[in-house]
Amino acid sequence: MNGVTMQLNADDLIKSALKEDITSEDITTNSVMRGYALGEVDLICKQDGVIAGLDVFARVFQILDENTQVKLFVKDGDEVKKGEKIGLVRGDIRVLLSGERTALNYLQRMSGIATYTRSIVKLLEGSKTKLLDTRKTTPNMRVFEKYAVKVGGGCNHRYNLSDGILLKDNHIGAAGGVKEAVRMAKEYAPFVRKVEVEVENLAMLKEALEAGADIIMLDNMSVEEMKEAVRLAKGKAETECSGNVTKENIAKLVDIGVDYISSGALTHSAPILDLSLKNLHAV
Q1: Is residue 168 flagged as an active site residue?
Q2: How many CA atoms lie within 13 Å of 267's alpha carbon, on the beta-carbon side?
């Protein structure tokens, strides 16, 4: 994230997170630090992984005090090792203490997503299939979590409901069928928008293709059905595989030939990457 992106999209969210943690004062810090003192603390990696969210980490401290200095020895996307010192923060000790938890929460969460995403991307190496995230994100964390997926080597699906048309089972039910849903979407939406349709069987797939869908999402179908779906859709629409995709079961999907595999697990099930701020001292 560059500075402009940070201020436009992230600052308000970071401030909200800080307000959640500091409603009136940091009573613990204020009890042991009655005034300004310059200090420094190390950012230490406690397990191997992929780092993501360093700009967000730094921004937490800079919002509390613009004079805070953050020195980083790695960049987003780098692989880091247990025990590695990857940065340091220098500034008012009160700021270092009060911002510590919020800054680490962002960095650990984003790095965990990047690490998990990278591990799945490696399983897809050698295939034409691209890995996508979903909208199954933590409320008010989407901009950070989807960025972390990209850092890990994945690709972003639509950002939100305004970003693309995806006709799922309930949309199809509301419209009265696949053909009707696609027709209405094409009639309503700007011509530059692609129309994606979720299908659960080959009959729905054929109906979606006949209606002119641009992308077909194959939801919770068997491997055999998906292979046949890819064959039927070739040259007519792109295909996406979806439905409980995880690191443990993605291997069986690699050879199906879909254009995309989407996985909610990238953002809702990735464990954090353990990081810590250590060795705080006055300078």
Answers
A1: yes
A2: 29
Active-site residue identified among 196, 198, 207, 240: 198
Catalytic residue among 85, 90, 135, 136: 136
Considering the entire predicted model, what is its pTM?
Answer: 0.95
Strands 69-72 and 85-92: antiparallel
Angle formed by the axes of helices 11-21 and 54-64, to 10°? 60
Beta strands per DSSP E along the chain: 38-45, 49-50, 69-72, 79-80, 85-92, 130-132, 165-167, 195-199, 215-219, 238-242, 260-262, 275-282
* Catalytic residue from among 168, 231, 234, 278: 168
User: Quick one: pLDDT band at residue 34, thresholds 50, 70, 90?
Assistant: very high
128 as an active site residue: the answer is no
Q: What is the pLDDT of residues 88-101, one digit of tens each?
A: 999 999 999 999 99
- Is 136 known to be catalytic? yes
